[in-house]
Amino acid sequence: ATEVVAVTIGPKASQEQLRTALALGADKAIHIETDEKLESLHIAKLLAKIVEQETPELVILGKQSIDSDNNQTGQMLAALTKRGQGTFASKVVIENGKVNVTREVDGGLQTVALNLPAVVTTDLRLNEPRYASLPNIMKAKRKPLEVIAADSLGVDLTPRIQLISVEEPAKRTAGIIVEDVAQLVEKLKTEAKVI
After folding, report:
1. What percent of the chain has pLDDT over 90?
2. Among residues 73, 103, 104, 169, which is most buried (max CB within 10 A)?
3. 48 and 154 in contact (C-beta within 8 Å)?
């Protein structure tokens, strides 16, 4: 990579994660600042604006976020930018203008080859987390961090999903202990009526 750009969307406190990314080797950072809780489509559209501005060959996103946990943003971004996508990557190899993405599937491993530019979402097995050294943390303070207001990118951030209610699941009743297999079979026949 000739340049690594870290991007995050969120309130001013999100800049801490960008500074960490800069300390770990990113060349510059972009913070799309908003205090609103955004939906996956909003985030994908905002990121599409940054992709249009920066024209990266490879966009790498996490598999899912911790807020809505729905695993949609990467796929939406690929569709909006008309790029190939590789999801749940556990290994990424770039060679000859292609990116080979290896992912875990039920039957083992699957490798897909994508033409660049592409969008890849990552699995936790892609890399080993590391810590930033103190000299790199100090250097990160001098690296560029651009702040862009989310509403300045021309994306409609009106919520499309409305949360109506959240309820706890019904309390489970206590189970029973049976003396032997014969009693278990009898209860399955007479009470549960599953045999």
Report:
1. 54
2. 73
3. no
User: 29 Cβ partners below 8 Å, 6+ apart?
Assistant: 5, 6, 7, 8, 15, 18, 19, 21, 22, 143, 144, 145, 146
In this predicted model, what pLDDT tens digit does every residue of 109-144 receive, in sequence order? Answer: 999 999 999 999 988 877 887 888 888 888 888 898
How many Cβ atoms from other residues are within 10 Å of residue 12's Cβ?
A: 10
Phi, psi (deg, nearest 5) at residue 40: -55, -40
| DSSP conformational letter for 63 | S
Q: For residues 89 and 74, is the Cβ–Cβ distance under 8 A?
A: no
Residue 183 has pLDDT above 80, yes or no: yes
Specify whether the CB–CB gap between 35 and 58 falls below 8 A: no
- Which tokens is 10 given? 């969120």
Q: How far apart are CA 152 and CA 179, in angstroms?
A: 69
Residue indicated by tokens 């300390």: 23
Domains of the chain (ranges plus CATH)? 5-161 (3.40.50.620)
pTM: predicted TM-score of the whole model, two decimal places: 0.78
